[in-house]
Amino acid sequence: MRIAVIGAGTIGSAVAKALAEEGYEVVATRRKTSKVMWLEDYGVEVSNDNKAAAEKADIVILAVKPNKVKKVLEEVKPAVEGKILISFAAGLSLNFLKRLTGAKIVRAMSNIAVLVKESFTAYTTDDLDKEEIELVERIFGAFGKCIRVEEEYMDAITGLSGSGPAYASVFLEALIYSGLKVGLPRDIARLAAAQTLLGTAKLLLETDFHPAQVREMVTTPGGTTIDGIFELEDSRFRTAIMKAVEAATKKSKILSLEIK
Ligand SMILES: NC(=O)C1=CN([C@@H]2O[C@H](COP(=O)(O)OP(=O)(O)OC[C@H]3O[C@@H](n4cnc5c(N)ncnc54)[C@H](O)[C@@H]3O)[C@@H](O)[C@H]2O)C=CC1
Ligand SMILES: O=C(O)[C@@H]1CCC=N1
């Protein structure tokens, strides 16, 4: 199974590395290859020839920015005809992609946790048979967890879990900063913040607890947590998160309109 990853930038190089580590034969392309030669250490072939990479591949993954997709697809159109083409481009619909190519299209949204195989990938397609779905899910399995969804959810997924590591990082940065404010050394603040977020996420994934139940378990009456929760509520923390996800979802919905 040979996979071409077109656009070895932030997400493309993470994807190429994860697939090579899983034993796939991978070629990754980028206009300026010097920045990603490190991928060769993981067995990834690095190239600047999209057409040749797509021709030799069984499956093509598109990881260029949405405004570059049209140009790249014009270049590789004959090479991807009838093949599975997985697009990670935010905001570009199955129909938008189908108008540009005769490939079997999978619209997917992963996130940067591909780097540690803990990504959440949601995908949608109406072109693939059962075996092809299994194949695509094995590929996404190399990145972390995956689910198939109706296309109507893809913009919301983009706003929530595609961008999510950025929101979580803002929260983590704030926690680490708070640690410094209350007198913790940097390394202890960093570990305390990251492990606390990881542990809470695991509690949700491995039990049936609702986040509100976890919050209640932690909040001892008259104790310390309630004073912290009071400040979060006063700062409209939850509203800020909801507004962030809503704004990113809206942007995903209009991204394709911005492409000429
Ligand atoms: N960064 C992230 O966490 C995620 C990004 N995405 C999607 O992945 C895509 C890429 O995003 P990033 O990796 O953040 O951007 P990026 O800018 O880091 O990567 C894009 C890469 O494509 C390369 N490129 C541009 N034109 C090219 C061409 N004609 N041929 C070959 N390579 C070309 C660029 O040099 C760059 O390295 C976007 O469509 C984005 O919506 C999806 C999920 C998460
Ligand atoms: O910011 C972006 O457009 C991409 C899509 C999801 C995460 N990063």
From TrEMBL:
Organism per entry: Thermococcus sibiricus
Record: residues binding NADPH: 50
Pathway the protein takes part in: Amino-acid biosynthesis; L-proline biosynthesis; L-proline from L-glutamate 5-semialdehyde: step 1/1
Keyword Cytoplasm among record annotations: yes
Biological processes per GO annotation: L-proline biosynthetic process
Function: Catalyzes the reduction of 1-pyrroline-5-carboxylate (PCA) to L-proline.
A GO MF label: pyrroline-5-carboxylate reductase activity
UniProt domain Pyrroline-5-carboxylate reductase catalytic N-terminal: residue ranges: 2-91
Predominant place of localization: cytoplasm
Enzyme Commission number, as recorded: 1.5.1.2
Family stated for the protein in its record: Belongs to the pyrroline-5-carboxylate reductase family.
Keywords in alphabetical order: Amino-acid biosynthesis, Cytoplasm, NADP, Oxidoreductase, Proline biosynthesis
Highest taxon in the source lineage: Archaea
Transmembrane feature ranges: none
The protein's enzyme class: oxidoreductase
Protein name: Pyrroline-5-carboxylate reductase
Residue stretches making up the Pyrroline-5-carboxylate reductase dimerisation domain: 151-253
InterPro entries, sorted: 6-PGluconate_DH-like_C_sf, NAD(P)-bd_dom_sf, P5C_Rdtase_cat_N, P5CR-like_CS, P5CR_dimer, Pyrroline-COOH_reductase
GO CC terms in record: cytoplasm
Pfam families xref list: F420_oxidored (PF03807), P5CR_dimer (PF14748)
Localization of this protein: Cytoplasm
